[in-house]
């Protein structure tokens, strides 16, 4: 490991917070990481980290070196990225992160098409329902619902993602037709939940065009969006879902859109996000591949819901 690599290793230790986490990520012994950091300190002639049995903290010199390491990482990434733009055909590794369901439904399709067209590109796809740090974790593209809070990221719209309320015929037979917000709020529902997050409130416009919200009576919380839909199919609960979460359940009569007169807000928009405006050609081509699969004005998932463009206060 040369000096530059050790400097980047220091940055990794600081960002992950411990030698142990870095050793686990790199699949090497912790003592190897400690040895390289000590070697870096010897080369620079200054202490960079204050070590205790329980924690690490940066010295003043260490803070300055970490800033230099960040600049070095940016320079190296930019250099590789610019070089890739001169390739006649895309090549190298493309690292992608996506929410789980969207990744299974559409990103995987795009991977299959893309690798047939560009076999010299190796792809790593990470599916997880958290917002990753694109730069720190080294991803080329991320697919997310909603605009990222990090304004330094470049965004491209993929497709809208609208809400609907669904219940099974069995549920409707048990509870009767659901025509009012009061009824809706009184019936058992399934909601997506994760640590620190419960999606059980939704906005709508009332008859006076004023923004209001309804709150579900949550009988089942689950941290997997596919389970939200499956729970509604089972007939014990209703659910508020996005159009993207629907496969053929409505076409097959397993679910029915309810309260379709309610003017619902959209849930959000799918975006592709990437760290640099002059992204490598492989990044741009993959986004175009995905957009061809998803569709432009009307995303493919809305075609699974008959007459959806006129439901929930919409006209197109």
UniProtKB/TrEMBL annotation:
<dbReference type="InterPro" id="IPR036388">
    <property type="entry name" value="WH-like_DNA-bd_sf"/>
</dbReference>
<comment type="similarity">
    <text>Belongs to the LysR transcriptional regulatory family.</text>
</comment>
<keyword id="KW-0805">Transcription regulation</keyword>
<dbReference type="InterPro" id="IPR005119">
    <property type="entry name" value="LysR_subst-bd"/>
</dbReference>
<dbReference type="Pfam" id="PF03466">
    <property type="entry name" value="LysR_substrate"/>
</dbReference>
<dbReference type="Pfam" id="PF00126">
    <property type="entry name" value="HTH_1"/>
</dbReference>
<dbReference type="InterPro" id="IPR000847">
    <property type="entry name" value="LysR_HTH_N"/>
</dbReference>
<feature type="domain" description="HTH lysR-type">
    <location>
        <begin position="1"/>
        <end position="59"/>
    </location>
</feature>
<keyword id="KW-0804">Transcription</keyword>
<protein>
    <submittedName>
        <fullName>LysR family transcriptional regulator</fullName>
    </submittedName>
</protein>
<dbReference type="InterPro" id="IPR036390">
    <property type="entry name" value="WH_DNA-bd_sf"/>
</dbReference>
<keyword id="KW-0238">DNA-binding</keyword>
<dbReference type="InterPro" id="IPR058163">
    <property type="entry name" value="LysR-type_TF_proteobact-type"/>
</dbReference>
